[in-house]
Amino acid sequence: MDFSFTEEQEMLRDGVGKYLEKNYDFETRQALVRSEEPWSQKAWQQFAEFGLLALPFAEEQGGLGGSISDCVAVAELFGKHLVIEPYAASIMLAGAALAASDDGPAQDWLEKVIAGEAIAAFAYEEGAGTAAPDMVAMIAEPVGDAFTLTGEKRLVVAGGEADCLIVVARRGEDGPLGVFLVEKTAQRMEARSYTTIDGRSAANIRFDATPATLLDGAEAALDRILAHAIIVQSAEAVGAMGALLALTSDYAMTRKQFGVPIGTFQAVAHRLADMKIAYTKARATLLYTTAMAESGAVKPRDIAILKGQVGKLGKAVGEAAIQTHGGVGMTDELSVSHYHKRLLACDAMFGSHDYHLRVVGQG
Amino acid sequence: MNIDFAPELEDFRAQVAEFFATAPTPAIREAGRKTTSVFAPFKECMEWHRILYDKGWVAPHWPEEYGGTGWSVEQRFIFAEEYRKADLPPLLPQSLGMVGPLLIDIGTEEQKAKYLEPILKGEDFWAQGYSEPNSGSDLASLSCRAEPDGDDYIINGSKIWTTYAHHANRMFMLVRTSNEGKKQQGITFLLLDRVDYPGMEIRPIVGLDGFPEQCEVFFEDCRVPQSGRVGEENDGWSVAKHLLKHERGGGNAASPTLMRYCERARAAAAETLSPFGGKLSEDPVFQRDIGELEADIASLAHFEKLAISGHEIARDPAFPSMNKTINSELVQRASTLMAQVSGVDGLARQLEALRVGSNVEPLGSEFDLISMPLYLNSRATTIYAGSNEVQRDLIARTVAGS
User: Fold this and answer.
1) Which of B226, B246, B222, B240 is nearest to B131 (CA)?
2) Acyl-CoA dehydrogenase/oxidase C-terminal domain spans which residues (chain B) (predicted)?
3) CATH topology of domain B248-400
């Protein structure tokens, strides 16, 4: 057994970490969120140069043949720096769906995604906190060799900017699931873009008999794709939890009340201890689940445990950090509130902790 | 990253499981199922101890030269997992887990020669005399006094929460030998060869669950030999701190026991009626509760496995305190859920039916018999071995400035 990052993974982390320290400090990030830009094109190109956009894909597809633990090693840093670039959405989800299909158009799009020339988005959520693919209700009607999609997908991260959409829908009423490709230029599609509470660009997208192409073979990979994306999203959340713990302990040891640092009060000290326990538990589960996924041993229940634990513990850490910071923790100015909002978003996407913990209980 | 145990470990697992399936007597199995505490029923527990000794498996965590098994940490984890799956009574911790390892580390050759073998064989059972009525987690405030007199000490005072002292034939204890300087500096660590010295009296205390598990021990001008001292006079604090490493540090995985509790709760819930109709196991609230608990237990298992793999998590100075806090609170939550599943059937006081070999039929299932005593007994897990408040103080110290 070995749950540590390898030397190569540490080197990659070191490189990406240094870049983010220098170019992605909190103020720069806030200026970016407030700007018209959905995210930093410069950062995305830099990620391409680090090889991150190619990381999870097979070498014969132009990727680097990286493992899920490579992605986790980097994603913790994305969480630590509250990165708003759509890595999980465009690479782990939409990119992976393109990679799972042998179809020509899928391969062409994948090439562009890996090169950082195109953005792909993953349209999955339908408003109920969809976690299990079985719950996807949207229907694709067959029209000759192609399909048309009707209905609405929500919280499509990078959906307003995407050059192509990967849409999960049912092939006819009560039919099997299919993964569909919709190009940005498709007709009868309307995207309403917004910024999420954690600073990311997302869209609700209405389809009204919108032409779509079935990506053959991708649906068989859907469970694995979702599992890996949940692991990477959980890594972002754990990175955010670690950052919150460090920030909050620094604050508690410097902020004085009644003449002494507030961290010397037992009530505050015990909250810090609970934050550390929560972070340690969440990180242990992240690393263990990652190792299971890497060895091919991960089961849906293990993913539900990870998602449930990270969601529940992350929310608790965020709330404890705000309480410890007091009034200033309530402000938009401090990163604390933004970490908390990232944790809330990670919890809500692909099924909240309430959902996943009940799944665990169902056995 | 790599999750796998080496393939030969699966053979080891099969070998352990086979032994656990065949070696224990029916009474030992019954004792295992009726264990409602960290401390298993004494008589059957010691019989099982002897069987494990004869097999050479009684002290997996001891160095091989002293009678340990020479197993890797992975083998020890597998052993613990199979042990719990078989519902066998856990061995008592004071002798094998505390005083034995302490003597191996810092005892004299004479002490090792005299005490280790009887511990392994289960001939000796040691009580731990640490706490006092006014010294719980603040152990340094203890006041039970030992005055040197010739080759002896004369002890006056009392000890409390000395688990199973009424079964013990030996006792290790902390006594105050000086009031000079810092309160930690006047403490001495003593081994008592007997528990029936003149002037020594042991009185059992009946606990919440109705059982006399704890004891109070009184000393009145009790004369014991100074040769039982471990370390120097007034240096007992460092000896006790050394021992604490064995008490809190784990090495004994808790997650397999907790998972077993959940399995038993699940099986019982599938047979229990929900007040809303149907079976309790189908109730969404029950599913959410047990799911939350099992997910938390899984995280403890992950934490334990990272630690045994040598991950940096185990080198965190907060590791022993986090380990103690997490698993003690999970024992409470698991037993709470068990009592909740039992519901009204957990309310009958059935001390006689709980006795191993009893001819009194339990009123309900065996699960109902044990769930309430386990719940009541486990209120202690967050109090003993340094209360969880003390553990959180220690953890917080490692957070500051991180």
Assistant:
1) B240
2) 234-399
3) Butyryl-CoA Dehydrogenase, subunit A; domain 3 (1.20.140)
Q: CB–CB of A361 and B286 under 8 A?
A: yes
In a domain, A38, yes or no: yes
Structural domain of A54: 7-115
B292 touches chain A (CB under 8 A): yes
The overall pTM is greater than 0.90: yes
Which helix or strand (DSSP H or E) is residue A183 part of?
A: strand A177-183
Mean pLDDT score of chain B = 94
- Domain with residue A100: its CATH number is 1.10.540.10
Half-sphere exposure of B86 (CA within 13 A, CB side): 24
The packing angle between helices B284-308 and A266-294, to 10°, is 80
A273 with B308: Cβ contact below 8 A:
no
Residue pLDDT, tens place only, A148-163 = 999 999 999 999 999 9
Residue A1 lies in a domain: no
pLDDT band at B247; cut points 50, 70, 90: low
What CATH class is the domain B9-91? Answer: mainly alpha
Instruction: Indicate whether A111 and A19 sit together in one domain.
Output: yes
Count of beta carbons in the 10 Å neighbourhood of residue B358: 14
A176 and A66 within one domain: no
Residue written as token pair 């984890």:
B77
Of A1, A272, A275, the CB nearest to B309: A1
Alpha-carbon distances of B79 from B52, B73, B193, B251, rounded to whole Å: 12, 10, 32, 12
Confidence of residue A11 (pLDDT cuts 50, 70, 90): very high
d(CA B309, CA B301): 12
pLDDT tens column, A305-337: 999 999 999 999 999 999 999 999 999 999 999
**A272 chain-B contacts, CB cut-off 8 A:** 395-396, 399-400
What is the topology classification, in CATH, of domain B126-234? Butyryl-CoA Dehydrogenase, subunit A; domain 2 (2.40.110)
What is the per-residue pLDDT for B136? 84
Partner residue opposite B2 with nearest CB, options A2, A276, A356:
A2
